[in-house]
Design brief:
2 domains, Rossmann fold, 5-stranded parallel β-sheet
């Protein structure tokens, strides 16, 4: 069965691109983004859509006008509206008989439920029940683990499978709430990073909580990968303490196989930026891009 096709109409390029990517990253929809109402009408004339999501702050026309034009072009298309941040839709828009409202801010993980409800569909089954398809080394490759600080890299060691009872650092709930409330802005940063490195997955993890993700893997698989990353990082911290590392942890971690590598940067105690990507991407480029994005993510960590 073909995935529902969704048109995002938003004059804010960053938010529009983020929402389009957020929909596609669920693995349940295809989506495109239009910058203006005029572009949206042209797109509707050229291809079929199941749902149009319209931001109330369009630059070229009133959203009411666009809704009416869409209904005239194809009355079968479902329509959602995005109100101004922290606000509800104006009363006069009730007569438009919209199919749904997407409030700002929202959690990307809530998109499937909100979108399926607007389209009158049964909620899509969670992909988290599927096995993890995170990048791994080919069977004939022997993975290596390299834990790194600002000092020269230690020799490769054997990859460790962390014990399930390992204590993951507890991230304060206030920090997690603030990160989740800033999810739209964080996803935009991760999506910008993905444009540079084209990763299988880019994760921002707090404890074992997946805050946001970008890349090829859907959210269900990224949530499972986030737990593995948190466990692996905790194992590295225990090794750092055993070796007498002054900070008590390694700031960077690299797991590398024949085709893929998993690079993790600790932003704060329990808050991790992790990338799963091809070994074709130069490691120096990965480190440079992650340091830059880490500086921008720092303002969301309280």
């Amino acid at each position: 069965m073909a995935k529902p096709n969704i048109l995002v109409v938003d004059s804010d390029e960053g938010f529009g691109f983020m929402l389009k990517d957020g929909l596609q990253n669920t693995g349940q929809y295809t989506a495109i983004w239009s910058h203006t109402g005029s572009d949206a009408l042209q797109a509707i004339g050229e291809q079929s859509f199941d749902l149009v999501i319209i931001d109330i702050g369009l630059s070229d026309m009133k959203p009411e006008k666009l809704v009416k034009a869409i209904r005239q072009a194809n009355n079968g298309i479902k329509i959602m509206m995005i109100p101004f941040i922290g606000d509800t839709l104006p009363d006069h828009m009730e007569k438009l008989e919209l199919n749904g409202v997407l409030p700002k801010p929202f959690f990307v993980g809530d998109l499937p439920e909100l979108v399926d409800k607007a389209m009158g569909r049964e909620p899509s089954p969670s992909s988290s029940s599927y096995p993890v398809q995170a990048p791994v080394a080919a069977p004939n490759d022997t993975p290596t683990t390299v834990e790194q600080t600002t000092e020269p890299s230690p020799p490769p060691s054997v990859a460790v499978t962390p014990a399930p009872e390992m204590g993951i650092p507890i991230v304060p709930q206030e920090t997690i709430r603030f990160l989740r409330a800033s999810e739209a802005e964080i996803l935009r940063l991760l999506s910008d990073l993905n444009l540079e490195v084209r990763a299988e997955a880019i994760l921002l993890v707090a404890g074992t909580n997946l805050i946001s993700h970008a890349g090829m893997l859907d959210r269900g698989h990224c949530e499972e990968l986030a737990v593995l990353v948190a466990q692996s990082t905790q194992a590295a911290s225990q090794a750092a303490q055993f070796l007498g590392e002054r900070a008590g942890r390694f700031t960077q971690s690299l797991h590398e196989g024949g085709a893929y590598r998993l690079y993790t940067l600790t932003l704060h105690e329990g808050v991790l930026l992790s990338l799963a990507l091809s070994t074709n991407v130069p490691l120096g480029m990965i480190r440079h891009q992650c340091r830059q994005i880490a500086e921008q993510l720092g303002k969301y960590i309280i």
